[in-house]
Every structure is written in C-alpha cells, then in structure tokens.
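Fill in residues.
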C-alpha cells in the first residue's frame, strides 16, 4: 500500500487537475462569448459563428473544447449541430466569473465607460428604480433580444420587441411612460442601440444593464415562454 502522504498528494493533484480543465477552457475570449450567448438560449454552430464573427470551423473547434470540459452539450437536428449549456450552474458560474473580473480588473470599467459614454449614463437605470417605476405604472420594459432568447427566459412582464423590429413597432409603445430596454447584460449593445433609436423618436428611454441571469440571481421574477398575442 502506498504511503498516506503520497495518496493525499495524488488525490489533491487529481482534483485540482480536473478543475484546471475548466480554467483552460475559459482561457479564450471567444469561448467566454460563446458561453454567454448559450446562457441566453441554445444555438446552432452557424448562428454562434455569425454572432461571434468567427468562421464555422473555428467556432466548432472552440465549442468542442467547451464540450470536452463538460460545459456545453450538443445534439443533432438533421445536418445541424445545436449547442446548449450543460447545466444551469454554468450560467451561474459565468456570472460569478464576470462579477469577479469587473471587481478586480479596472480596465473593464474603463472599456464600458468609453463605449457607453457620450452623454448617456453607462448604467442607464438601476433595477430598484425600474421596479418602482413599473409598479407605479410609469415604465414599460422591453426585451430587445431575438425572440428565441425571450422565449427561453425573460424579465416578468417584459414585452418582446427584437431590436430589428423596434422601428416598425414603435406604435405599440406608450409615449407617456418611460421605456426601459434590456438585452444580454453589461457587454451587450442591443439595449443601447434601442435606447438611441427610441430617444431619436421622442421617447424617454433608459437602458437596464442587467441580464435575465442577473435579474434571477437577485431574486426578481423571471418568466418563460412566448409573449401572449394581443387581443383582437
């Protein structure tokens, strides 16, 4: 029988070695972005490649690394490979990882301020203020992500108006209330673009930087499924 000290060292080395596989899988900006997108909804390789500005072959290679690390799963539908997160814990971990980075890496805040500056508050509206406005009937929340992401999960009571439909659906929004747009979180620009468009059309609009996962992690209500059709 091996000495106890050697067995303890093998045990620790083995456990930390397995954990290091996840660390290695995360050591790529593109793989982090892929995980962030998959935390919104499942997607084909082709859709992920387009969203991340990669070729399909390159995206597939990154996805295989994530799959080998047990962070994503894949299924086949005809000729398409569809990826999803392997477990909701992956989304929770990714959020915690992001928050740690924002706390320890000052450059992230500087990047956000440079991008979302130009006279618009980088934070737009905070969640407590949003809740007060919604409860008082002073605000309407719109989800400007693609509809499949809205169907997967969305802030309770939010309207689904994907950014590419916003211009043609302005008539559905009240002009006597604040409009609060949200998308995939602090590194997503869809809500910022929506606020810019709404402001140019005379709406009083704000950006909520929280993602659905941020909202859920803080104990606020989340819903799933399609938006009910308007009554005739």
């Amino acid at each position: 029988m091996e000495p106890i000290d050697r067995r303890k060292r093998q045990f620790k080395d083995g456990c930390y070695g397995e954990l290091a596989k996840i660390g290695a899988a995360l050591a790529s900006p593109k793989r982090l972005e892929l995980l962030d997108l998959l935390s919104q909804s499942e997607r084909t390789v082709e859709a992920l490649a387009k969203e991340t500005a990669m070729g399909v072959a390159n995206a597939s290679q990154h996805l295989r690394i994530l799959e080998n690390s047990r962070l994503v799963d894949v299924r086949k539908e005809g000729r398409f490979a569809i990826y999803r997160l392997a477990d909701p814990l992956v989304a929770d971990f990714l959020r915690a990882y992001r928050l740690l980075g924002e706390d320890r890496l000052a450059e992230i805040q500087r990047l956000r301020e440079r991008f979302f500056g130009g006279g618009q508050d980088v934070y737009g509206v905070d969640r407590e203020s949003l809740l007060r406005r919604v409860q008082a009937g002073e605000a309407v929340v719109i989800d400007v992500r693609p509809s499949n992401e809205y169907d997967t999960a969305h802030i309770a009571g939010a309207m689904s108006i994907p950014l590419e439909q916003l211009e043609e659906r302005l008539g559905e929004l009240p002009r006597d209330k604040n409009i609060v747009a949200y998308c995939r979180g602090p590194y997503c620009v869809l809500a910022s673009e929506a606020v810019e468009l709404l402001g140019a059309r005379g709406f009083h609009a704000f950006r909520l930087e929280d993602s659905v996962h941020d909202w859920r992690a803080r104990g606020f209500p989340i819903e799933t499924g399609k938006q009910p059709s308007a009554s005739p």
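The longest strand covers residues 72-77.
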